[in-house]
Design a protein that fits this description.
single chain, alpha/beta, Rossmann fold, 7-stranded parallel beta sheet, 45% helix, globular, binds nicotinamide-adenine-dinucleotide
Length: 247
């Protein structure tokens, strides 16, 4: 598969696993995007390159539209090809109930998870149109969009509900151009996001609760993402795939 795969938030967790596995799955050129964790991004890029792929390291805070625009300006100088986008960068706030959801916190969650994802998609589709070789998008939602995450982070859950809806609308809007848009909804996945949300032992406490009795791995999410991006999923668009062990 020739083309350029753009993975946002590829310095850690699901994004890093996706970029690494993409190099094994035949994507020869991979944009390893990161927000702050340069070292994590460099580690991902090293794996991509050890597989013979070409890694492009880009820093951009996805909550800053100008930073996203700068990244895509530089990307437009790269040799054209089919574009894959994994709209993965995301955050959770600390576990809290409604009274503690300050406007500043909610704004930040939506700025990264929703406004950032929309702007990244907008820029990526501009690149796809400019290069004329088509493309596919996978948005990373969350099972929280279905469950609501009460007393944890309803703001995060609502932001992922927006990602589900964005996926449906963009899929319909872009299908006539041959651009497929899908999403995955990870459940409890073993990444550092739980510690960043203030509950480092979350998986020890509730990792056994999905029907499959265990948390998922970032690689299990990456498998689903890469299948949705691939030609093996050529008739799949507007789908939201749960990767949640039955949760
Ligand atoms: P993670 O914290 O390991 O990775 C998140 C990535 O997003 C990191 O690379 C981080 O640098 C990047 N990022 C965060 N804010 C950013 C910003 N402002 N600008 C640029 N990059 C930024 O977490 P993860 O679990 O790998 O999460 C990846 C995606 O999966 C997120 O969208 C998350 O909501 C979703 N998700 C995770 C789980 C889970 O249980 N781990 C469950 C459901 C959904």
């Amino acid at each position: 598969m020739s083309g350029l795969l753009i993975v946002t938030g590829a310095s850690a967790g699901i994004g890093a696993a996706t970029a690494r596995m993409a190099a094994f799955s035949g994507w020869s050129r991979i944009v390893v995007h990161y927000g702050q964790d340069k070292q994590g991004a460099e580690e991902t890029a090293a794996v991509v390159e050890s597989m013979g792929g070409q890694a492009y390291l880009f820093q951009a805070d996805v909550s800053k539209p100008k930073a996203i625009a700068r990244m895509f300006e530089k990307l437009s100088d790269i040799k054209p090809g089919r574009v894959g986008l994994v709209n993965n960068a995301g955050i959770v706030g600390k576990n809290a109930s409604l009274a503690d959801l300050t406007p500043e916190r909610v704004e930040k969650v939506f700025a990264v998870n929703v406004f950032g994802a929309i702007e990244v998609a907008r820029q990526a589709v501009g690149l796809m149109r400019g290069w004329g070789a088509g493309g596919a998008i996978v948005n990373v939602s969350s099972a929280a969009a279905r469950l609501g995450a009460p007393n944890m982070y309803v703001d995060y859950a609502a932001s992922k509900g927006a990602i589900d809806t964005l996926t449906l609308g963009l899929a319909d809007e872009l299908a006539p151009e041959g651009i497929r848009v899908n999403a995955i909804r990870p459940g409890l996945i073993a990444t550092a996001i739980h510690a960043k949300g203030g509950v480092p032992d979350r998986l020890e406490k509730i990792g056994h609760t999905p029907p499959m009795g265990r948390p998922g791995t970032p690689e299990e999410c990456a498998e689903a993402i890469l299948w949705l991006l691939s030609e093996r999923a050529s008739y799949v668009t507007r789908s939201i795939l749960d990767v949640a062990g039955g949760r």
